[in-house]
Design brief:
Strand content: 15-25%
Number of strands: 13
Number of domains: 2
Oligomer: single chain
CATH class of the largest domain: Alpha Beta
Shape: globular
Radius of gyration: 22 Å
Distance between the termini: 12 Å
CATH architecture of the largest domain: 3-Layer(aba) Sandwich
Helix content: 25-40%
Bound molecules: pyridoxal-5'-phosphate
Structural class: alpha/beta
Largest sheet: 7 strands, mixed
Number of helices: 15
CATH topology of the largest domain: Aspartate Aminotransferase, domain 2
Length: 370
Amino acid sequence: MLDCMKLFITEKMATRTVDIRSDTVTKPTESMRVAMANADVDDDVLGRDPSCFRLENEVAKIMGKEAGLFVPSGTMGNLISVLVHCDIRGSEVILGDNSHIHIYELGGIATIGGVHPRTVRNNEDGTMDVDLIEAAIRDPKAELAYPTTRLICLENSHGNTGGRCLSVEYIERVGEVAKKHGLKLHIDGARIFNASVALGVPTDKLVRAADSVSVCLSKGLGAPVGSVIVGSNSFITKARRLRKTLGGGMRQVGVLCAAALVALQENVGKLESDHKNARFFADGLNKIKGLKVDISSVETNMVFIEIEESSGTTAAKICKDLEDYGILLLPIGSSRLRVVFHHQISNSDVKYALSCFQQAVSGGLNENGN
Ligand SMILES: Cc1ncc(COP(=O)(O)O)c(C=O)c1O
């Protein structure tokens, strides 16, 4: 029995919720709510919202870029960025076959922007082999058959491989290839702060080679809404027009930006603790017969769990059993689960979740929780 089982037994069932479905599920903190209530606002479509202006400048500064633009979501941030770089329909973008843009964004770059995706296989660490990236670039002098490559996209940290981090050295190598062929480089940095903290590298250094970055404030940083895309002044001027075209121009948006500014000030420093919780949780799960986590893949705030056949249970069953006890998580397929840590999960929550996992896998939970 794990030590933390004791905690489980004394816990009043279902009075506690441990929501580890994603880092997008956080609730705005008290200081965010106060900041939202008191936000200094004006019409941002007219370019006059002071809170929005502060947030955009702050994120641009942190990322070492000239300018920033607040957008409602990471999906819109990526879409706008790809479309600005690929402003001629029929352009081609090279991106990972397991990337968020390719898999989870409804193919918007193609349906809305007329941009053709050329996928390169994502390795288990989230990288694409640099020689494969280079080989995927179309030869502009070749016969009249091919789209024109204009952009390479990377993702850091890489969600579908479990929050793995791309190193500065890797990103700079891809940047050199992009430069050599006259291409732009975009980084989907939905969780760039997680990568920066895990690697111990400042964000501006990590994205130095990129022409644009989409930074989510509503993932690990815990803001309720929004992302900021950053890049050169001319990139942001074009991005602003596209955002309006897509219906993403918002009026008194400072209400949202004020919460995001608090998230930047208060929550970047908490990411290291989320990463520690993820590692602690992964170690604990590996002590439970029937579950397996590849510890080397736990670099940031995500844990992917394999359910071994011998356990006689399934991802769906574990999720259902745990839900009765307030543990919320997501299955990925029939024998895999995903857990994501965030600042509203304490180490005591992690221990409680571990004890519930132990019960759910080795014996099943009864209504008394044991
Ligand atoms: C890596 C990555 N990029 C982009 C997005 C899209 O962000 P949003 O849900 O705000 O559209 C997500 C969302 O989870 C993500 O994980």
